Amino acid sequence: MAFVLASNNPGKLREFEQLFTKLGFEVVPQAQFGVEDADETGLSFIENALIKARHASERTNQPAMADDSGIVVPALKGAPGIYSARYSGKGDAANNEKLLRALEGIEGAGRSAFYVAVIALVKHANDPMPVIAEGRWHGRIAKSQVGEGGFGYDPLFIPDGFKITAAQMTPDDKQALSHRAQALKALAPKLNGLQ
Q1: What positions does UniProt annotate as the active site of this protein (predicted)?
Q2: Do residues 103 and 91 make contact, with C-beta atoms less than 8 angstroms apart?
Q3: Are 56 and 4 a contacting pair, CB within 8 Å?
């Protein structure tokens, strides 16, 4: 059984392919079908993941999956949240600077944060029983950007149990611990019986 991945991100495709190949499923990027990205109009990670999965399924007439992810800072009422990728409107570096400004003067537990990844899988565009899996990676926001690896908020995110940012971790360590890795692990047992 094959699933269309509602993303044109090569990193996401690699992560999904690794898990799904082991489970006997094939993952095909939506770009192979000429499918454009869906408008993310939901108010939650779950809604946006479902919007993207249903959009890809409708355009391809195939089962599809999507993820929506971001970073949540409780002291900022959940911001950047679902707007993480477009928080500043000017890319990763500007997003990080905006988050640092928003947390100026906030210390200790007020700097706690977590990454969220939600994966939605639909067998068809109108599937009333989508498969949903979630992963969270808890940590805190550093006071400055450190590290060259990763992307997004990784230079600011210090995972619980670590003294380095996600951008300083090896790719293998990050991939094993990340919110997306946790969501994929949660998804795996839910795939039994789908073929």
Answers
A1: 68
A2: no
A3: yes
Residue matched to tokens 């707007």: 83
Domains and their CATH numbers in the chain: 2-191 (3.90.950.10)
Q: Given its phi and psi angles, is residue 114 left (phi above 0), alpha (psi -120 to 50 degrees) or beta?
A: beta
pTM of the model: 0.91
| Residues recognised as catalytic | 68
DSSP designation for 37: P
Query: Is 61 assigned to a binding site?
Result: no
Name the pLDDT band for 193 (thresholds 50, 70, 90). low
Is there a binding annotation on residue 96?
Answer: no
- Which residues, including other chains, have CB under 8 Å from residue 78's CB and lie 6 or more apart? 72
pLDDT of residue 21: 81
Please classify residue 26 by burial: count the beta carbons closer than 10 Å to its beta carbon, then call 0-12 exposed, 13-18 middle and 19+ buried.
Answer: exposed
Q: Measuring CA to CA, how many Å separate 146 from each of 41, 74, 184? A: 32, 22, 27
Q: Which two tokens stand for residue 194?
A: 């789908």
